[in-house]
């Protein structure tokens, strides 16, 4: 067991909420997010073009920031348009579909 001075020092150094256990809601949704992410990553090899919006600074719980997140997705899609158009026969040479 820690002696009293060490315990007091730890209490002074600990930030508010630092020792707080995560709630069940956060754990559950983090687990679901992780599983969905892994499934999506495993399917990327089937895509001809993958659009990666810049989402640093956003959390999956920030639905109130949907307009900002959608705008980031639109910017990324606009940047990917040349690669997408190159794969459409009307815009460029056709490409074979991947074997599944």
SSE inventory with pairings:
Blueprint lengths: L3 H10 L10 H20 L22 H21 L14
Describe what you observe in this structure:
With 100 residues, this protein is mostly helical. It has a domain at 20-86. Helices cover 51% and strands 0% of the residues. It has three helices and no strands. It has helices at residues 4-13, 24-43, 66-86. The N and C termini lie far apart (59 Å). The relative contact order is 0.09. The mean pLDDT is 80.
Broad structural category: mainly alpha
**How many strands appear in the DSSP assignment?**
0
**Biggest beta-sheet profile:** none
The rough form would be described as elongated
Radius of gyration: 23 Å
What's the helix-strand series? HHH
| Helix amount | 40-55%
Output mean pLDDT.
80
Oligomer: single chain
For the structure shown, list the relevant keywords.
100 residues, mainly alpha, 3 helices, 0% strand, elongated
Short description:
By secondary structure, this protein is mainly α. The protein has a domain at 20-86. 51% of the residues lie in helices and 0% in strands.
């Amino acid at each position: 067991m820690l002696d009293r001075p060490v315990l007091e020092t730890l209490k002074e150094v600990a930030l508010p909420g630092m020792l707080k256990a995560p709630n069940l809601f956060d754990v559950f949704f983090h687990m679901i997010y992780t599983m969905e992410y892994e499934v999506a990553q495993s399917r990327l090899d089937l895509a001809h073009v993958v659009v990666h919006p810049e989402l640093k600074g956003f959390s999956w719980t920030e639905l109130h920031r949907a307009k900002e997140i959608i705008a980031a997705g639109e910017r990324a899609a606009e940047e990917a348009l040349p690669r997408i158009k190159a794969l459409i026969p009307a815009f460029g040479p056709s490409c074979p579909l991947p074997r599944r």
